[in-house]
Every structure is written in C-alpha cells, then in structure tokens.
Design goal:
Blueprint lengths: L1 H13 L9 E3 L1 H6 L12 H15 L4 E2 L1 H8 L3 H14 L6 H4 L5 H4 L1 E2 H9 L9 E2 L3 H4 L10 H4 L5 H5 L4 E2 L3 H23 L1 E2 L8 E3 L1 H5 L5 E3 L28 E2 H28 L29 E4 L5 E5 L7 E5 L5 E14 L5 E14 L5 E6 L2 E4 L5 E6 L4 E3 L5 E5 L7 H8 L12 E2 L23 E3 L31 H23 L4 H22 L2 H8 L2
Parallel strand pairs: 10-12, 11-13, 12-13, 13-14, 14-15, 14-16, 15-17, 16-18, 17-19, 18-20, 19-21
Antiparallel strand pairs: 1-8, 2-3, 4-5, 6-7, 7-9
Helix pairs in contact: 1-14, 3-4, 3-8, 3-12, 4-5, 12-14
Subcellular location: Cytoplasm, Cytoskeleton, Microtubule organizing center, Centrosome; Cytoplasm, Cytoskeleton, Spindle pole
InterPro entries: C-CAP_CF_C-like, CAP/MinC_C, CARP_motif, TBCC1, Tubulin-bd_cofactor_C_dom
Keywords: Cytoplasm, Cytoskeleton
Length: about 575
C-alpha cells in the first residue's frame, strides 16, 4: 500500500520548500466563519453519531441533498436553526460551482445541501479555537486598548470576554499559530473524517473502505494545496490518485487507508514547515511582519500581506487616525481589521470574507462582502457594511448599519448593541455588490437571530447551565436618530462608478425621518439666506457657524479624517 504512493508523496514533500503549490493548508473559512454555538450540533462522539446520522440523511434525501426540513428532522433542531445551518454552510463551502453556493437566498431551501458536505460541516463543530494570546508589550497598548467595564464581572461567568478585556491585553492568535492548530486538529481527526466519506466494498477490514474521486473532492471543504485553493486546481488534481484521470472515464476508487497515509504525510510536512518558519522568526531580527507590531498599512508589507488569493489583507493597529483602501489595494479575497482604536477606516472594495476584531471607538466602512463578516470583541464601534451575512460576537455598545441578505447572527456576551438599515454609498458600491453577489432588493438588517451567550468552541470550561443562556439581542436605532453617513468624494477610487445613492431601500419610518431632516435643513438654509441682516452681520453669522462647526470637528475627533485622508 505504501509503496504505491511513495514516489508521488516523496516528490511532493521534497519540493514543498521550493514550490508553494505542493504545501497543504487548512481552509480557514469553515473554522473562522462556520462554527455555530448550537448544542445539538456538538457531539461527544462525532464519528459514531455522524455515521448513523449519515444513514438517516441519505434515507430522507433520495438525491443526497438535504433541505431544512430534513436537517431539522435528522438533528432534532428547529426549522430556524436548520435554515441557519444551511445558510452558514453555503457561506463557507469551497466550490463556487456547488449549487448551494450559487443559490440566491430564497433558493437555498429548494436546493439543499450535499449530505457529505453537511457531514463534514457538522463534524468540525467539535473544533476548539485557540485562546487569544497576550501581547508581548502589554504596556505599549494599554493606552489604546478598551478598559474593563462595570459589567465585566457579571459576564465573566458566561463567556471568555473577560480574558480579552483583562489587564494582560490579549490579541488574536497569529495566522501561523491558527494554521498549525487547525492542521493538528485535522491530523488527529483525519481517519474519522475519511470514514464519513468512504464507501465499503466487498471484503473485510480497513481495506474495504474506498474513496471515489467525487467523495475525495469533498475534502476540499477542509484542506487545499497551494495558495489559490478553490480558485486554482481541484483537490483531486493535486493528488497522486486522480491527477491524470480521464475526464471521460470514471476514476478507479482509492483505498481510504492510502488517502489517509498520504494526507498525514503532507500535514506532517506542512506542520514542520510552519515550525521551521517560526524558529527562523524567533532567532532572526525583529520583523515588521510580527503581528504584535502595531501597523498602519500591513497590506504594503510583502511578508505580511501575501500577494496570493489565499492570504488575507491585514489592517492592524491603527490608532487615532484615518485610513482607506480601494479595490486595487486589496490583493486577497479577505480582509481583517484588527486592534484599531479611535479611528475611521474605509475598505471600499469587494471581498469574500471580512473579520473585525478587538477594535474600539472606531467607525469602519466595509464595501461589499460576498460571503461572511465576523465582528468580535469590539467596543463602541460603528460598522457600516453591505454583505451576504454577518455574525456579531462579544461586542459592546456597537452600532451596525447593515445591508444584509441573511438575518444577522448574534452570539456570545454582548451588551447594548444597536442595528439600523444601511446608510451610505460610494460611486462603485453597486458594481462591487454585483461582483460579490449581494442583492440590494433584500435587506434583513432587523431580523437578527440571537444564539447562546457562551462560545461553545473556545478552549475554556464553563459553569454548568450557562451554555443555555441566550445572547443579548440588539435594539433598532430610533428613526429620529438615523442619519446618512457621507463617504468623502476623494475616497471613490481610481475610476468613477454609477452609484449615486443608497442602493438599499429604507424602511418607511427611516425614510420619513430622512425626508423630515432634509426638509428641516432646507428650511434653516432658507431662513439664513433670507435673514434681514446687513452684510457685515451676515459675515459675522457665517463666521460664527464656521467656528461652531470647527469646534464640533475637534470635539468629535472628525478633524483627523480631514487631515489624514486628504493627505493620502
């Protein structure tokens, strides 16, 4: 068995140092955006449970595709939770040709999920994330990191939020640490995962399980070779088993044991590669690529922001400043805004995934996010985003102005969240939304779903019973307090677009408030123009208004935007 694959395996391993396309990576998306804090999705013995569940799903799904009714029946969860499972799975699937990925929001129910993709999705619900790490120089970030709040002690029993807000100042694990953690998880569970995809043949023992090329391709949900992943070769083309298969002839199934051994060797090689890079980094000179270093423009650092489609673009450590990126500046398919404070950040570009983590007292505008947004451990942040879906976890006193095609998901220990309809535009917004697949005719901004207040995927133990506590939901912004957000014209990008107004239709109450505010503003302007004042008195009034406006710019901190953004 081993002899049959040694030539291909040794070749791929020996070239891995020089050829990135031969290095195996975990797909980050299922682990970052695909975990749901639903108790009935987390099994103490996932293999045995899912093998029996597989039979039930296949019995209920003659075409091997499960809709929400089938998922609800098989897992004994509500229809709403079953729909959430399908929506989440669609957001993290690896193949753009998969019908569930191509389906519009109203079509997901009729299309359903491939049973084998669903099984892999359910299996990784047992994954435990790395805990946030301590900053190497806690004192250096103490002046910008949000301080603990009065209700921290109350929430500490319910979630790991206290850890992130503690005096030890914790940050997201590095990309290398997370990748190694995910690879180690796959290494440990690989045999069980393959057993869910394999088919038995005549005979007994381990050799009786085989993988067809179609079943092998489902592993692309969890792993990929090289940087491009699903945007490059399929997984079977990167393997020694199916790489030269005749497309007109069915490929011969491969023993699951051979696939298992081959993948284990590649995972071990990749882990060794990560360890070697970490060792070189520790022993070498300090590098700006270290995530602990506060950076204003991580995207311009080659070792930090990979030019490939796989690596995310980092925007990290911005403090008391303003910052913007257009489509031509974003090289990857995802963006991460990390540890930014008292700043205004504009990412006016279409991306697949976005993460906002550990930010405070900031306004963040994300252009068009075609798959999923996750906002975590933020305080007093105003986020404006057009996206397919959004998940909000462990945030406080934040306001979300949303144009979303699926209901917002709220999990963890949140406090005083507010939601409002989308309230801005820029010239290329509709073009970016079309590219990302976001429908302006659907906005479910106020249909938020609140799940558990405890993160079932962290590495902590929690007091008995607290996992049943529901997350605090969000309230709607009062229509009278709703205002448009104006993006400066000079941030429009290199070419002018066709968007002239907000592409999402405002609800009646918010539209009425907007019309009323515009009418009041018009009346004030008219009164000022027609005021029976002498010319010198008009100049004094104009000067007083300018002084008041300047005072407001400084008091609100918005003066930074004028200096920072016009200077770009």
């Amino acid at each position: 068995m081993t002899d049959a694959i040694e030539p291909s395996t040794s070749s791929s391993l020996s070239s891995s140092a020089g050829d990135p396309s031969t290095i195996i990576h975990p797909r980050r998306e299922p682990f970052e955006h695909g975990l749901l804090p639903i108790h009935k999705l987390i099994f103490s013995d996932p293999t045995q449970t899912l093998i029996s569940l597989k039979q039930k799903l296949l019995e209920l799904s003659p075409n091997q595709r499960a809709n929400s009714a089938v998922v609800s029946d098989a897992l004994q969860i509500s229809i709403d939770c079953a729909k959430l499972v399908l929506d989440t799975l669609a957001a993290v699937l690896h193949s753009d040709s998969e019908p569930l990925v191509r389906a519009n929001p109203e079509e997901i129910e009729s299309v359903g999920a491939d049973v084998h993709d669903l099984l892999l999705f359910l299996y990784i619900q047992s994954y435990k994330k790395l805990l946030p790490r301590t900053h190497k120089d806690s004192a250096a970030v103490a002046d910008v990191w949000p301080s603990t709040s009065a209700f921290d002690g109350y929430l500490s029993a319910l979630s790991p939020l206290q850890l992130v807000r503690s005096n030890s100042r914790r940050f997201m694990p590095s990309q290398a640490d997370e990748e190694a953690h995910q690879l180690s998880y796959l290494q440990k569970h690989l045999a069980n995962i393959l057993s869910l995809l394999a088919e038995p043949v005549e005979g007994e023992g381990e050799e009786s399980l085989v993988l067809t090329m179609d079943r092998f391709e489902h592993l692309g949900f969890l792993i990929q070779f090289g940087d491009k992943g699903s945007e490059g070769n399929t997984l079977s083309q990167s393997s020694p088993f199916f790489a030269n298969s005749d497309p007109d002839m069915p490929a011969v199934p491969v023993p699951a044991a051979q696939v298992h051994d081959w993948l284990l060797q590649n995972i071990a090689s990749s882990l060794a590669n990560i360890s070697e890079r970490a060792s070189q980094k520790e022993n070498g000179p300090a590098s700006i690529s270290d995530q602990d270093v506060a950076m204003v423009d991580a995207c311009t650092v080659p070792v930090k922001a990979s030019p490939s489609t796989r690596g995310p673009c980092f925007i990290e450590g911005i403090s008391k400043s303003s910052y913007s990126k257009n489509a031509s500046d974003i090289k990857g398919s995802s963006v991460k805004v990390l540890n930014c404070h008292e700043s205004a950040i504009y990412i006016l570009a279409p991306v697949r995934y976005a993460t906002v983590y550990g930010c405070s007292d900031a306004t963040i505008v994300l252009g068009a996010v075609g798959k999923a947004v996750r906002v975590e451990h933020c305080e007093r942040v105003h986020l404006i985003v057009a996206a397919k879906r959004i998940c909000i976890a462990n945030c406080r006193e934040c306001v979300f102005f949303l144009g979303v095609n699926q209901p917002p998901l709220i999990v963890g220990a949140n406090h005083k969240l507010q939601v409002a309809p989308y309230n801005t535009f820029y010239s290329q917004l509709e073009e970016h939304m079309a590219e990302a697949g976001i429908l302006p005719t659907i906005n479910r901004w106020d249909e938020h779903v609140a799940l558990g207040a405890v993160d079932l995927h962290d590495s902590l133990s929690h007091p008995a019973g607290v996992s049943d506590v529901q997350a605090e939901s969000a309230t709607r912004v009062d229509p009278d307090q709703f205002t448009d957000f104006v993006i400066p014209d000079w941030l429009g990008g290199e070419s002018s677009g066709s968007t002239k107004h907000n592409p999402f239709t405002l609800p009646d109450a918010y539209m009425a408030s907007q019309i009323r505010n515009q009418k009041n503003l018009g009346e004030i302007r008219q009164l000022l123009r027609e005021a029976p004042l002498e010319e010198n008195r008009k100049k004094e009034l104009s000067s007083a208004l300018h002084v008041c406006f300047k005072d407001w710019l400084y008091a609100s901190g918005n003066i930074r935007q004028l200096y920072c953004l016009q200077g770009e």
